[in-house]
Write a structure and sequence with these properties.
The protein is α+β, with helices and mostly antiparallel strands. The protein has 2 domains: 25-145, no CATH class; 154-267, no CATH class. Helix content is 36%, strand content 21%. It has 8 helices and 8 strands. Helix 6 (212-224) crosses helix 8. The longest helix is centred in the C-terminal third of the chain and has 23 residues, at 245-267.
């Protein structure tokens, strides 16, 4: 019993110092686990075949609809492996429809973030790995981790360093974040969210709302203020009366330490290499 308790304590301590919680090691065969067996941040999507695309939604994310454009004949076999191969060799896109009718493009890519190739869904809500997937003739079902973030890369440190540069002087920080960053750019006065978003665009050339740098900052805030109840963690923490400029810089510094540790640990492990989607020029 003492050994079990010791293992649990060590596991908790290790997780506290990780940049992002680990995802599942590999996808299962063409069979999805029951959602009640997974944490609350896992969402299931079911897409049904309609002419030249699959479209559907998630019961847990009401009002949002997504599609995957797959013309007839492209998907030779009804299997997860064949779908991944198709996404790897073809430019597969889709559409995200918001509850208010707004639309944006989805890009599907094949990545190797762990020991197997998986499908990566790049949306304006964030970039999500298909943790589990099942493919049939007339239906594609998959499960994503809403809080997923990719393995850390040096560019994540670059993002945090750039955000810290933007916020280095107290006169360049403000406590009135509305998640609209055009005025921050013009005035050179930044909220935590807008500094991270702008740094992400500069360093990566694209914006992932759930990129590893931003996710790690969110997790640092979660540890700093457990059960905070923030609707938008970065904005609400920035605007909170108790948040000072010094606290903002400390949070960024802690996030940098976590990602540095993850990068160092990954170099000491013998693991298959992972690859991220390349940004198009």
């Amino acid at each position: 019993m003492k050994n079990i308790l010791l293992i649990l304590v060590i596991s908790i301590i290790v997780l506290m110092f990780l940049g992002c919680p680990p995802s599942n090691e590999s996808t299962s065969p063409d069979k999805l686990p029951a959602l009640d067996e997974l944490p609350d941040n896992y969402l299931k999507f079911t897409l049904e075949k309609k002419n030249d695309r699959f479209e559907g939604q998630s019961e847990q994310l009401e009002g949002f609809q997504i599609s995957m454009n797959i013309p007839p004949g492209l998907l030779k076999e009804s299997s997860k492996e064949d779908l991944i191969l198709l996404v790897k060799n073809q430019e597969i896109t889709g559409t995200l429809i918001y509850p208010n009718g707004r639309t944006s493009e989805i890009k599907y890519e094949a990545v190797r973030h762990r020991e197997t190739e998986d499908i990566y869904m790049k949306t304006t809500l964030g970039f999500f790995l298909w943790e589990y997937a099942a493919v049939q003739d007339h239906e594609i079902a998959f499960i994503i981790n809403w809080w997923y973030c990719p393995p850390a890369q040096k560019v994540d440190l670059d993002i945090l360093n750039r955000a810290e540069q933007l916020l280095a002087n107290p006169s360049n920080w403000h406590k009135h974040d509305d998640r609209k960053c055009e005025d921050d750019i013009k005035s050179n006065k930044w909220s935590l969210f807008c500094a991270l978003k702008h740094a992400s665009m500069e360093q990566r050339g694209e914006y992932n709302h759930h990129n590893t740098a931003m996710q790690t900052v969110r997790f640092v805030i979660d540890n700093l203020i457990p059960d905070h109840g923030f609707e938008h963690t970065l904005m609400d923490f920035n605007n909170a009366p108790s948040t000072t400029h010094k606290v903002i810089l400390n949070v960024l510094h802690t996030a940098e330490e976590r990602i540095s540790k993850e990068l160092k640990d990954s170099k000491n492990q013998i693991l298959p290499p992972f690859t991220l989607p390349q940004t198009s020029s």
